Structure formats: structure tokens, C-alpha cells
Amino acid sequence: xxxxxxxxxxxxxxxxxxxxxxxxxxxxxxxxxxxxxxxxxxxxxxxxxxxxxxxxxxxxxxxxxxxxxxxxxxxxxxxxxxxxxxxxxxxxxxxxxxxxxxxxxxxxxxxxxxxxxxxxxxxxxxxxxxxxxxxxxxxxxxxxxxxxxxxxxxxxxxxxxxxxxxxxxxxxxxxxxxxxxxxxxxxxxxxxxxxxxxxxxxxxxxxxxxxxxxxxxxxxxxxxxxxxxxxxxxxxxxxxxxxxxxxxxxx
Length: 251
Ligand SMILES: NC(=O)c1ccc[n+]([C@@H]2O[C@H](COP(=O)([O-])OP(=O)(O)OC[C@H]3O[C@@H](n4cnc5c(N)ncnc54)[C@H](O)[C@@H]3O)[C@@H](O)[C@H]2O)c1
Fold this sequence. Notes:
Bound molecules: nicotinamide-adenine-dinucleotide
Number of domains: 1
CATH architecture: 3-Layer(aba) Sandwich
Structural class: alpha/beta
Distance between the termini: 30 Å
Strand content: 15-25%
């Protein structure tokens, strides 16, 4: 199956690094125009250049937790790139702590990006571009921690559980508008987010012991799943979660 996204416009949040950047590259290569949204002013220009090498792309500097800025941002992207067919929400952070160590400040920091920022990106794009045109596909990046608990993950699990539940609720509310919305739930992938944790031998052993294939997921493993769900090939799929976890959650 050759997944194509020709003549579509996509927004990818968290697109300056890791999974978001890999998705932006594959989406551009598949034929869609890509708006890269990220809050990191240092990495966004280089990431945009990388995606421009694969197709049409433009970078937009924005922190997704600033909800008042999202409507103007999406308006600007629509003016400059066209109506939005695909939204991939990958912006996310993690502050690994044992459940009894999580502070209120860290709780808000993680949930503001992973749950609140993601939800209001979904909502803003749906309101402006998908509901009025009765079409669109949204892919939210959850985690295997949307489905199971994990060591030092209480805060992160709360936020990623929210990603899955909000996605299911949106699928119900937006089905009348022909909008599909799904979650891709990766296991560990080597990115700047996970690099520090993966350098800890004890943590690496814990991970490899849980992934049935005893290897990390690659950026391509995740980006392919995202492109499939974003594409018309997945036209009957909504409100679901696709784990890309090498079997972690099968046990
Ligand atoms: N790397 C993993 O092992 C792994 C596993 C499962 C799920 N995930 C999820 O995948 C997503 C991407 O993670 P990654 O590993 O690529 O991380 P990453 O740190 O490489 O990339 C995240 C990007 O999001 C951006 N970002 C963070 N907060 C933002 C905000 N408030 N507004 C706009 N941009 C913001 C960062 O600047 C960065 O460019 C996250 O949602 C993460 O939870 C990662």
C-alpha cells in the first residue's frame, strides 16, 4: 500500500524534534504541505529546512499551552498554506518522578502540554477548518503509557491517559462532521526526550525487558503509523489507539 497525502495540508505540533519531525518529514514526502509548529526557536528553523528538502513546509513558532494564541495561529496557517486536512499533535514533555515525588508545579507543566495544549489544538483546528468543511483527520501522539502504568510515570500516565480519553470523546462529537481522530501510542524511541533516561542502564534493562522485540521503536515505525491513520486508507478508523510498542501492552 502506497500511502499518499497529495493535495492535503497538515499541521504537526512538536515538529522541531523527534517523533514530530519524523512525522513532518514523512507527511511532506507523502505529498502534503506541512506547517511545523514548535516552541523551540533554536531547532525549528533547521527542522523546517529538513522537511523542505522533502516537500513544501513552513515553520511556525508557538507554545501550544498558550491557548489564546492558537486561534490566530491556525488562521495564519490557513491563510498561508490552505485549509487543514491533517493535524498531528506530537508536542509533549515528561518529568519522570515517583508518584510520591510529583509536585503540583510539575503536574501542571506536564498536563498543560500533553493534555491541555493537545486538546485545544484539536479543538481550534476542528472549529476553524474541519467542522465547516466536514472533513479531516487528527492523529494524537499518546504513549504506551496511555494504556498501562509505568515506573516514575504517574504524572505522564495521567496526561497520556487523557490523550486517549479526549480522543475517544472527540471521535464521538465530531463523527457527524466526518472528522476522524485517533491515537498512536509508541513505546520508547530514541529522541532528545528519552535520551537521558535511556542512558541509565537500570532503566534501559527495564525497557528492554518489557518490549517483546527487545528493541526500541524507530522514528520511522511511529511516523508510518501516523501517516496511515492520517490518510484516506484509514477512512473507517476513528476513536481508536494504535500501539507501536513491540508488544509492551500485549502482556
Ligand atoms: N521518545 C519516546 O520514547 C516517546 C515514547 C512515547 C511517546 N512519546 C511522545 O511523543 C511525543 C514527541 O516526543 P519526542 O520523543 O519526539 O520528544 P522531543 O523532545 O524530541 O520533541 C518534542 C518537541 O515538542 C516541542 N514542545 C514541547 N513543549 C511544547 C509546547 N508547549 N509547545 C510547542 N512545542 C512544544 C519541543 O520543543 C520539541 O521540539 C511526545 O508527546 C511524547 O510524549 C515519546
